[in-house]
User: Fold these one by one.
Assistant:
Number 1:
Amino acid sequence: MVYTYLYNAFKCATMQFLRDHFEKLITLTDKEFQYILQFFRSRRIMKKQFLLQEGDPVTQEYFVVKGCLKSYVLDSEDRSHIMQFALPDWWISDYQALVTQSPSSMFLEAVVPTQVLCITREDKERLCAEMHKMEHFFRIKNAYGYIGLQRRILSMLTGSAKERYEQLLQQYPDLFQVVPKQDLAAFLGVSRETLSRLYSKNK
């Protein structure tokens, strides 16, 4: 009985988190939101568990409710190059593979125990076709995602290691509480030693 109560409370909190996320950009009635929920499935991932590995088929994208995910590629020397972190309230997938329906070119792994809500490509397209509000929501989110990617590319091309570090710290301070320094270094494109020096100077 206690377990059932806790499970229902957890489920309600998760669904409210998703609704709050949508309603930052659109307004939904209770009936509309209940319909939207049919398209999502909840999944929990243990620390260091993969959602995707290189070569996997990609059929879903993921909305992070709790925890943190990272997407990365490995070079010919098995060095990790992190493309993105996803904290709660963020979306993540291998979007190139999802859109082109090709095998994944990256890994998607849980940094810490993580809960996500999953939606398939087909269900997202159906939802957007049936509800203009949701089409509008995802169109705006895609635009924000493109802006974020452009900023990251410009930062990597023109910013110093110190500037990249300070920008990341200012924009996403929570990452520094969750993500290991080794992963932060891989994301910033610096060595672990360089990151440690930057960290010490900002204390």
Number 2:
Amino acid sequence: MKAFRVLSLAVTLLASSAFASTYTVKPGDTLSSIARMAGMEPAALMQQNHLSTTTLQVGQKVQYGTATSPSKPSAQASAPQRSSGGAYIRAAASRFLNIRYVLGGTGGRGIDCSAYTRAVFSQLGVNLPRTAREQFRVGTPVSRGNLQAGDLVFFNTIGGVSHVGIYLGNGQFANANSYQGRTIIESMTTAYWSAHYIGARRVLNG
């Protein structure tokens, strides 16, 4: 049944892919599933529809595609471009700010810390594992004194590697914060985060 729904959604989207089209959200749809079938990145779909959250309501109208080209929208056209000073990292991280925190969430109802880092890094061409613990095993270890924008920073909040965020420079990092209930940018130098910091990994080259 699930496979049929995915196929049905794909057919609906592809049938009018040459135009800017509207899709009506149905039960079970998520932003990620609609974006995938439309051949778009979730962030591009959010940007096109001026969405500040990944949460969608049944019956909601979602625009996708372009009115000027029959080809699928290019994720590269809207993806943050690498530049000096880590501005592109902040731009990528900011695309997914103020999304509701949900433990285990990966899409429509909200996201958790590792889902947030995955979403951001997908815009930068990096496919991260699902959990914070798994993400801690990828890339290259980095000392706290050598952190640079784009490094994954990890914390022990409930035992072991249990939280991950993205370092933005100047002591700031972006993360899906369960206490705040949303994805935010905050300081790593607070007493709480300083006490719970356990390490960093570098997964971006250059």
